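Here's what a typical entry looks like (F-box domain-containing protein):
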Amino acid sequence: MDESSRQPQGPHSLHSSGSQSYSSPQEKRDALARVKTQIAVLKASFAALATLEIEEKALEASLAHVVYPVLALPVEITSRTFRFCLPAHGRVAPSARSAPLLLAQICQQWRDVALSTSQLWSSLYINGNRIPMSRVENIVRTRFYRARQTPLSVGLAFDRKLAPASLLELILSHAKQIRCLDLHVRAQQFCNIRAHFPILQHLATTHLSQDEVWCFLEHAPLVRGLRLLAEQSRDVSIPPFLYGLTRLEISRPISLETCLHILRTLPVLCEFKFSLHWQMHSVPDSLQAPVFPHLSSLTLGSEYSSSVLCLLTLPNLRFLKLPGYSTLEDVLEFVARSVCAIDHLVLCFEDIGEHEMWLWLEAFPTVSTLEITNCHELAGLLRCLDPKRSHRVMPRLTDVQVRSETHIDDEIPSANDHTNHTDAVVEMLQNRRDSASCALLRRFRLDLSVFTESPDTRLWSPGHLGVAALTSLIANGLDFVVQVESYDLNGSMTETWPQGYVPQDPLPLFP
């Protein structure tokens, strides 16, 4: 075997040949030729390696699309899907456990899509009582950078301490980009805000001074939604430049005269939420019931507020929330006079028996979304909603949410305890979904608040048959959940069935 065949064929051969001594120029020429040959071979190997690595990545990506089909979706569809992962109320807290930060942690492809979707980063709610101030400015700056030119929804809650001046300056530097603003800061900081909000459409504030709120809104010509959440000491007087409001919420009780004045002076008001003074629960007979054709959503806060229905005619009302102890006769007269097709109804069934519940529910045949608060007679309500027992009750119903309170005196309730109601729930759901005369019930949520002396009590135990029936309903498309919040001597605890349920927000609450 000659000397050339014994030369090492690897990356160290250049080093070894360079360390040898050659006696003649010919030997050096031969060695140089061998080195050039090895270099050419290595270059070819590196080129082949690069080609193989490209092929490897392509095969891995193709296999990933088989194992994880969602990765094969076009970027536009994934981006749009991500936007639906944000909470419907729009108050996006900077948490790594929820969108959008959670989406950016799944894989590199999702991270790229999330970072390129500016709408994911355009909503931010900062609770100054919960988040360290050392992180706030960096979070805001990063969110605004990723949002690019997308209109912003910003919330600030600093009711226990002053907001950092640098943080307010940072947010106000983007005032021209802010479309929705939840502003809850100390009075001295609110007064010092001097900025123009050319695209601001919705403002919520707890500021006490109405005049200062009006001064603030003079620099927001497009504002259409206003939530006054402070407990002001006097009635509200809307200035003329806000007569274009379409949404108005007033937390503190107002007088009947103020309520009617607001309705008359805001001709395009669509959504109104308020409470009446307790002194004004009696309505003069001499007053007429004017028509307000634009009002489509009415939320009455206090138990005296329903008396205003005697003075209103709302032919296009679609959403109605009534307080507890509302008078059925007044409501029936209002519905008959308005000839309105209410689609979303919220009722309080505190201290109401089954027959009266049936009368209330029968009065609203057009309702598709029903919310019941403070229901003490859950079994009676379930019977009222069962089409085999009450075939005329809400035939268009597709969405039900019930909140109920109960007390457990026994340490261990029996299987038929009134806190469970599994059989009645299953029977009502099956009859609703099987009935040819009713719309398909798509969502049912039961929120139980239970007060018990035994912390070890299992508050929702549907049993094997109940689990089987409910699992079948869920598999067939029913959005179902029971959430139990228990209170005992040791504190509170929340239990959800089925476990791991992800709620589906049926309606947007925040623009």
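The two ends are 84 Å apart (CA to CA).

More examples are in the samples folder.
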